[in-house]
Amino acid sequence: MQQISLKRDSGRRTATTLLILIAALLFFCAGTALAKEKKRATGDPFVISKKTSSSKKSVRLKVTAAWKKKLGTRTPWGKLKEIGGHGNSSRPVVYGDTLYIGSGRKVFYALDLVSGDLRWKFKARSMIDGDSAVEGNMVCFGTVAGVLHCLDKNSGKELWSFNARSDIIAAPVISKRYVYFTSTEDRVYALERKSGKKIWSYSAFAPHYVMPRVVSSPILRDTDVGKRLFMLLANGSITCLDAARGKEVWSRKVITSKINAVERARRRVEGNETELFVIDDRGVVVAINHKDGKVKESYPVIKTIDFVISGEKIYLLGEELLVAVERKSGKVLWSTGLDYGKPFSLELSGEHLVVVSTMTEVPFNFKYLAHTYGYVSSYFTATGDESWNKKFKTPVTAINVSNAKTMALVDSKEVLRVFRTEQ
């Protein structure tokens, strides 16, 4: 009898231990959720509520693969310029029914947007790591050796080239008379569109960094005092130039903390008829007056990673939130929680906002089995409700969603993929 009693006591102790473990696990999960919610609510002075968007169910879109093409392989140069696990690949550009893109194999491609068939290709002398621009009859792009190539967009025949002798990453701007571009030595160039002859160049001082010094793609605007060229320099200044002569009109420092040059190059600079918008040191989007460079408005809603502007609305991307803000009043229209890893890029595609993220998974907490995936998710601009999401085996490094029914993206292995979206 004593032996049976001991067995019963042992069984009770085992059951009690299991109940304690289950209770501890539930308490841990609840505590983690509460801590995460508290961080969203009070941990950062910018952070607003997790979700205030409409509860109305939205129609989800169907995303189907159309075609893919291997462009090249990752290179030490591309690997050097990684930020947060994703590279700095050439962005696909869609113009009409043609997709243009450069590669690490020194080849620039023109591909049929529908089928992926090759229309033409151009062999450069060095890797093409930057973005291209298409306007009229020409397409222009730069290489890591600092050569700007301008080609006939229909045939791929080279019209002219210009050697800037420093890596060209940002997309050039093509106007009726000139081609404007920037290089990693903090120099801005204006070339004659027809011949490629240099009209002027502007040099801005920036201290040396471990990473290459990079300037953003210029923004060209018509103002009441003539054409003006705006860009974000690697020293953290927004600079305004007279587009005709290359003379500095004003310059204002907006970034003072030590941020590597490639992250500066990725910082978006947008503009409308009267203002420029950029993210400052605090992660706040600020509006800067075209005429004198003074800050007109600021939007301290969340700590912003990226943003886009559409009409009277500004859409802000944070670490855990996507927020829509009324541009004139700063009123929050809606906010949506993000559930797919670490976001780093926001794009506008018609009535949808497209977020690109990375997520690293570590099976059984064994770091040697860790794998980083890419995520692309889409949200309705009107409500913030999710319209679709897609997971990729490798991180997405560049994306183009300018065509509302087509999504073109490149992953870290330089594979170009094109998808169709439909209801």
TrEMBL record:
Q: Note the InterPro entries from the entry.
A: PQQ_b-propeller_rpt, PQQ_rpt_dom, Quinoprotein_ADH-like_sf, WD40/YVTN_repeat-like_dom_sf
Looking at the Swiss-Prot or TrEMBL record, what is one Pfam family this protein matches? PQQ_2
Residue ranges occupied by any Pyrrolo-quinoline quinone repeat domain in the UniProt entry: 130-292
Q: Which residues form the signal peptide?
A: none
Return the protein name. Pyrrolo-quinoline quinone repeat domain-containing protein
State the species of origin.
hydrothermal vent metagenome
